[in-house]
Amino acid sequence: MHIYIRRSLRRLALVLPCLLAAGVALAQGECPALVQQALELTDRACAGVERNEACYGNIQIQAQPQPAATAFAFSDPGDRASITDIQSLTMSGMDTPDVWGVLLMSVQANLPDQLPGQNVIMLLMGELALEDRRAADLPTINVDIRKNARIRGGPGTEFAQVGSARNGESYVADGRNEAATWIRLKLPDGGTGWVLGDTTRAAGPVASLAILDDNLDADGLTYGPMQAFYFTSGVGNPQCAEAPADGILLQTPAGAGRVSLVVNGLFIEVGSTVYLRAQAGGAMTVAVLEGEARATLNGRTAIAPAGTQIRVGLDAAGSATGDLVVEVYTAAAVAALPVQLLPETVSIAAPLTAAELAAVLERNRTPLNGEWRLLSASCGERLGEIIPITFEVDGTELLMIFFGSELPFSQVEGGTYSDGVRSLYVLSPEYIESQNETNGCSISLQLVGGD
């Protein structure tokens, strides 16, 4: 493991060492030499960084510890701390050639304990403020109890009963298991408990809830350290042209599947290399340099392939708000990113063409063919039933075919379709809802197997 990380860090440390006096401008051609020196400096300083550890790469960084955290200090390059002990970080932009905050973090996120060599690598660069928010800002929906249910301590009948939910009661749900057969409720006493999904009637998409059954630690926290965080980054460019703009370069390990993160309240699943930037009161972007990323907000999911980015507005507090937009990034915006320095060797994808982007947007609003599970229903349908459904799309027309029946819909806007009686909402290619405007009945379905 140490050899692997040492080799990674030899390439990972795109930092400027303290070699020049503050305020001295770089001469033309001087920056590449300084970068090379920085590689050697950080290789010695940060070799052997462990899982859930942060390594101080370059000045200037200020850290606020968690309450009762083990004492630590980021005074010199190479200083380290457990990210469990870090509450917040503030880093400087490149105002002068020798002052540029850079921090390397190795984060477990929701990767299994059995694979300690697999970690999410996060390279924080430039003007940046970041706060750990692991136990906050989970997506929630309101649910009504439709029949008496046992509340259990976990998602399964093997867990002890911790309470009861009565028909007609209302709760806020903040999580589910992967199959969405169990829903986690926030209880009046401040705790949480789990009920079978078919005992509830959801007022929003169950699929938008975070998958929690594999993400609970010994303290009952929903996410691990730095798996859920808020951050803002600078808007300018560093003085050194060879250095990337302020932001977070993030890579998940190959073959590990999608890693879950909550960034500024936006639920993100990453199986790739991405670049994050955010300005409070402006927008946050998740540029997908290779692989794929998914983001979910207010029940709607956007899926972005390499060569695109997901953009979402941020309010004054830095929380994600509004619509998710998949768009093409510019080559110039990602050209300086040091992806060749990451553990997994990748090439930055070229921006998609207009035709390629149009195809991506159509896929985002087209349900996949396959077997769909009935997650919620308001008019007595049998929850959990598996329904084979196929979809045919022709421009703005969508045909839904199941059990020999054909339902034609016309696009209203985005992923919303209507046949004059029913509204069909494609919240993602793997999750749909339907509302009957005549009788008020509604259902939601999630893909469980398809193409």
Furnish the topology, listing elements before pairings.
Blueprint: H1 2-12, H2 31-46, E1 53-58, E2 61-65, E3 80-82, E4 86-91, E5 102-107, E6 120-125, E7 128-132, E8 141-145, E9 149-152, E10 161-165, E11 170-176, E12 182-186, E13 192-196, E14 200-202, E15 228-233, E16 247-251, E17 259-263, E18 266-278, E19 283-297, E20 300-305, E21 308-314, E22 320-328, H3 331-334, H4 354-364, E23 370-377, E24 386-394, E25 397-402, E26 405-413, E27 416-418, E28 422-428, E29 431-436, E30 442-450
Parallel strand pairs: 15-17
Antiparallel strand pairs: 1-3, 1-5, 2-4, 4-7, 5-6, 6-16, 7-15, 8-11, 8-14, 9-10, 11-12, 12-13, 16-18, 17-18, 18-19, 19-20, 19-21, 21-22, 23-24, 23-30, 24-25, 25-26, 26-27, 27-28, 28-29, 29-30
Helix pairs in contact: 1-2
